[in-house]
Specification:
five-stranded mixed beta sheet; 2 domains; AbiEii; 11 helices; 7 strands; globular; Nuclear Transport Factor 2, Chain: A; alpha+beta
């Protein structure tokens, strides 16, 4: 038996103190494991050049009120994929030392590495699944994509875990989210929700960042046109989004776009 199983009731208590619904035990477990991964990564000096981006970064570092499944990172020019690979493998080593069974799946592409940390026994041991074969997966995506981040060091403090984490400014993230919404062939409700959340928390478009990354200047008008075109699908978007929200009624914010 490992410490995670022994301490799961304490982890759930942390989640309760953060306002997370007790019945969302799977989501709390995933968020705890994400937090451990972030801790192990940023204990390493070379990780100062690994930028934590995306929805999970907003959730864990900025208080976004929706759960997010993937850990997304951008590489700066100072860090190559070989070093990033070593960082991720150190996470596996640490979990195994703690007697937490985990395996690593890795898929390398020219400008991207995708990983899955697969925990084979955890769901069954914690009585979250009756299927002994069900695996819990933590996905990690590392790529070289965005240029010229305005980086900020944010203190991560959740589940009794402390770490200094490198992440983009909210203004940068707003540009990234707008570009994601514009470019996706199939719209993800989370993109719309996150844009609304970011603007509500004071984010403004970083025009310099847009220019460095060749994001078209008329992006706002392009997004409004796309939203109007998809308005008939808003109810469907809300239904897809609700399971990931801490307060499912917040799906109504999709109307504010």
């Amino acid at each position: 038996m490992n410490n995670l199983v022994d301490n799961f009731s304490q982890i759930l208590e942390f989640g309760k103190n953060y306002g997370l619904p007790y019945e969302k035990k799977r989501a709390i477990l995933r968020e705890y494991l994400q937090s451990r991964v972030i801790e192990i990564i940023y204990l390493q000096k070379k990780s100062a050049d690994l930028i934590f981006v995306g929805g999970t970064a907003l959730r864990l570092l900025r208080g976004l009120d929706r759960f997010s499944e993937d850990l997304d990172f951008d590489l700066t020019r100072k860090l190559d994929f070989e070093k990033a690979d070593l960082i991720v493998k150190s996470v596996i080593t640490r979990f195994l030392k703690e007697n937490i069974a985990v395996s690593l799946y890795r898929n390398k592409k020219p400008k991207r590495i995708y990983y899955e940390l697969r925990f084979p026994d955890l769901m069954y041991d914690l009585k979250l699944s009756k299927n002994k074969q069900e695996k819990l997966m933590i996905k990690i995506d590392i790529e070289k994509f965005w240029l010229g981040h305005h980086k900020e060091t944010v203190l991560f403090n959740h589940y009794g875990i402390l770490a200094n984490v490198m992440t983009p400014s909210l203004d940068n993230v707003l540009v990234q989210k707008m570009a994601a919404y514009k470019d996706r062939g199939q719209t993800m409700a989370r993109d719309i929700y996150d844009i609304i959340w970011l603007i509500g928390h004071g984010a403004r478009i970083d025009k310099e960042f847009m220019k460095k990354n060749k994001v078209p200047v008329p992006i706002i008008s392009q997004l409004l046109i796309k939203y109007e075109r998809e308005k008939k699908s808003i109810k469907k978007f809300k239904d897809r989004l609700r399971p990931f929200l801490i307060n499912e009624d917040a799906s109504e914010k999709l109307d504010y776009f």
